């Protein structure tokens, strides 16, 4: 396909929204655009792309929730990076959804698709559908659905989409998508021949402790019975999620990053009460921040670590950079923090605003 011919045939962002046949979809897209903000560090990062004059080919559809949530993220990035964007409706442009173009593996017509093109129309990056964090959440919820021919399937599936919509309104899933796009395109400005950014690694994660600052004070006020209460059909209580968050962060730092194969996180028997669990959470985070302290973003992108496939679900990323691993640590905490809030609600408790 000749991209120099095909790309200009797409719609601008404003033209795409103006063509929506369902007003509430356009309104929700505008709301998502207004709600999302890049961090100052992200703005600085994306402005380094202005001299590259990248183009973005987008495949989407007005009815798709993932398009509504993620297209605004791309537009914020495109404005800072001076990327030109053209959007194509999936259903009226079948030539863009073939095995030779942008069809997802397995023949899936997943959208949105963001295809990044350089000045010579070469593809330099591609991002599809949703972040890994959001996808993990969707797949976990889908696994709990009844079979497709079950009389409750449609209602339960609709509830799933409503739940995910509420999660997106919290903002952290769009932030996860923004971080993935940054990781995807960072080699263009940090690779061989490029001047190193020198950006301190910790500045890339300014919101790393936001959930802790909001959630842990509320957790500290819970009774032992509330901490250990498990929802019907589940084996996991709030106390479990807290231990698990600390254990996984500890494991990532020692077993994966520091390559200590004999390392074992602290077990439940070593964490008999809330005080010991909270102390472990603080210790795990302190060691993560201590590890990141001397690193720059460039170094996180340059160094890699092997990931044992038996410890991970789904497909591993092609490049197991330290940046990906650190993102995984923080995404993991956000994901389970949301479950903590859900268990609080199920007990009739008022969770803190996040």
Question: What does the model show?
Answer:
The protein is α+β, with helices and mostly antiparallel strands. Helix content is 51%, strand content 6%. The chain contains 15 helices and four strands. It has helices at 3-6, 13-18, 23-35, 40-46, 65-81, 132-143, 153-169, 172-185, 187-190, 210-220, 224-228, 238-257, 274-292, 297-302, 322-346; strands spanning 55-60, 84-89, 113-117, 123-128. A four-stranded mixed β-sheet has the order 2-1-3-4, covered by helices on one side. Strand 1, helix 5 and strand 2 form a beta-alpha-beta unit. Helix 5 crosses helix 8 (172-185) and helix 8 runs antiparallel to helix 15. The longest helix is centred in the last third of the chain and has 25 residues, at 322-346. It is globular and about 65 Å long. 32% of the residues are buried. Residues 192-196 have low confidence and may be disordered.
Key features of this structure:
51% helix; alpha+beta; 4 strands
SSE diagram, text form:
Blueprint: H1 3-6, H2 13-18, H3 23-35, H4 40-46, E1 55-60, H5 65-81, E2 84-89, E3 113-117, E4 123-128, H6 132-143, H7 153-169, H8 172-185, H9 187-190, H10 210-220, H11 224-228, H12 238-257, H13 274-292, H14 297-302, H15 322-346
Parallel strand pairs: 1-2
Antiparallel strand pairs: 1-3, 3-4
Helix pairs in contact: 3-5, 5-8, 8-15, 12-13, 12-15
Briefly summarize what is shown.
This protein has about 350 residues and is of the alpha+beta class. The protein has 15 helices and four strands. It has helices spanning about 5, 15-20, 25-35, 40-45, 65-80, 130-145, 155-170, 170-185, 185-190, 210-220, 225-230, 240-255, 275-290, 295-300, 320-345, and strands at about 55-60, 85-90, 115, 125-130.
């Amino acid at each position: 396909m000749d991209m120099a011919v095909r790309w200009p045939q797409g719609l601008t962002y404003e033209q795409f929204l103006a063509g929506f046949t369902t007003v509430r979809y356009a309104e929700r897209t505008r709301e998502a655009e207004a709600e999302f903000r890049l961090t100052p560090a992200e703005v600085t990062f994306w402005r380094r792309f202005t001299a590259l004059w990248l183009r973005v080919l987008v495949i989407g559809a007005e009815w798709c929730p993932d398009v509504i949530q993620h297209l605004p993220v791309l537009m914020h990035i495109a404005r800072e990076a001076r990327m030109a964007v053209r959007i194509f409706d999936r259903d009226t442009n079948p030539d863009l959804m073939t095995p030779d173009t942008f069809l997802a593996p397995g023949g899936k017509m997943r959208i949105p698709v963001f295809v990044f093109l350089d000045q010579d129309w070469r593809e330099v990056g591609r991002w599809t559908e949703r972040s890994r964090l959001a996808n993990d959440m969707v797949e976990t919820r889908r696994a709990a659905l009844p079979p497709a021919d079950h009389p409750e399937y449609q209602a339960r599936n609709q509830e799933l989409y409503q739940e995910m919509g509420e999660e997106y309104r919290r903002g952290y899933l769009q932030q996860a998508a923004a971080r993935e796009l940054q990781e995807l395109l960072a080699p263009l400005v940090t690779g061989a021949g490029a001047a190193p950014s020198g950006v301190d690694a910790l500045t890339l994660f300014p919101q790393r402790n936001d959930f802790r600052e909001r959630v842990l004070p509320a957790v500290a006020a819970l009774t032992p019975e509330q901490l250990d209460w498990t929802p019907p059909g589940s084996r996991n209580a709030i106390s479990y999620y807290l231990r698990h968050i600390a254990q996984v962060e500890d494991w990532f730092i020692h077993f994966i990053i520091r390559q200590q194969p004999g390392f074992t996180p602290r077990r439940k028997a070593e964490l008999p009460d809330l005080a010991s669990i909270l102390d472990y959470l603080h210790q795990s985070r302190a060691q993560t921040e201590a590890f990141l302290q001397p690193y720059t973003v460039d170094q996180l992108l340059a160094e890699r670590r092997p990931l044992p496939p038996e410890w991970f679900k789904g497909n591993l990323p092609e490049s197991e950079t330290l940046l990906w691993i650190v993102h995984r640590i923080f995404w993991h905490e956000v994901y389970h923090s949301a479950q903590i809030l859900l268990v609080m609600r199920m007990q009739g408790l008022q969770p803190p605003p996040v």
